[in-house]
Amino acid sequence: MAFGIKIVKKEEKIIAWSRIALIWVGIIALLYTAYALRTWANATPSARTVTVSADGKATVIPNLAIVSFSVVSEGSSATTIQTDNTKKMNAAIAIVKGFGIKDADIKTSGYNLSPRYTYEQKTGKSRIDGYQITQTVTLKVRAMDDAGKIVGALPSVGVNQISGPDFSVEDIDMFLHSAREEAFNKAYAKAKELAHLAGAGVGRVVTFSESSGGNYPRPMYMKAEMGMGGDASSVPQFEAGSDEARVTVSVTYELR
After folding, report:
1. Fold of domain 49-60+173-215+248-255
2. I need a labelling partner for 16 at 20 to 30 A (CA). Which of 31, 79, 91, 129 fits?
3. pTM of the full predicted structure?
4. What is the pLDDT of residues 124-148, one digit of tens each?
């Protein structure tokens, strides 16, 4: 009889602990559900929102000039013109480095050796009557005032093609920061005005997006065909000028 009573008590304990466990499972489930609902509510845009767009502008001043120059050599012997072309180009690079241009800003952007052909009417065939070699180097000139000086000095060593300068900005974000700030300030002011007219206040930002555009520094091209002994005084002074960068933001605010 006593043995039967012990079994009953043991079953009652198991049932009691099972009930406690179920209660805790239910509490945890409720807490998790509440957390999930709160997270969803925060992530879901309010039914009362206002979306506005605004522009911000910044003056962009170029801080980089790109200049390309070539040495073009022609002759009957490929070996001879290659030696001559290399000598002139090495002298040109020496001039460039004399202006403090670093190796990282000097790039060989083209090297082409090709035959020249002459068409013979008697035979109806073409034959090679010489060769042409073109070697091109592209520079990044960071000291803007030196761009014109470099262009003026290169023809004296045999450079006979020059293109540029192409004015640009190395880090456009440096200028866009103030434009972004202006755009967001205008967007908030516009949203505040609209909310006031609707009898509401402006709450948190729900979503936003950005697009950029405007007149970033545009290339200014100059192409010169120069012979030996070019006069530096004939090279015009380069003016980089300035342009305008624009950022447009679209912001959705919660109304409260």
Report:
1. Translation Initiation Factor IF3 (3.30.110)
2. 31
3. 0.63
4. 788 899 999 999 999 999 998 899 9
